[in-house]
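BUG: 3D viewer hangs when loading the predicted structure for this chain

Environment: internal workstation, default settings.
Expected: structure renders.
Actual: progress bar stalls at 90%.

Input used:
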Amino acid sequence: MIGRPSSISYLINFIRKFSKSTLITKKKYGDVTAIPTTAFFYGMKSNEEILVNIGQGKTIIIRLLYVGEADESGNRVVYFRLNGQNVLLRLPIRKQV
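Structure tokens produced before the viewer hung:
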């Protein structure tokens, strides 16, 4: 990492690898470290665009277009643009803790 001593980088990586919540998240969702922190923790705002680096020289562009209201089956329609292509997903509503 640029501008950080290697000992701090090691400590950060150590904590990430062995943190219980990180392990649970990784098991459930895979590697989410490429997702910007604010988008991961707080979600995206309408018309917000993020860049997600999925590999060396591979970046995808995601723009949230619209999040619909919940339907009678407990799903929500989410429209977004992925690398210029419009995508529609029906997602179950998460229960608040």
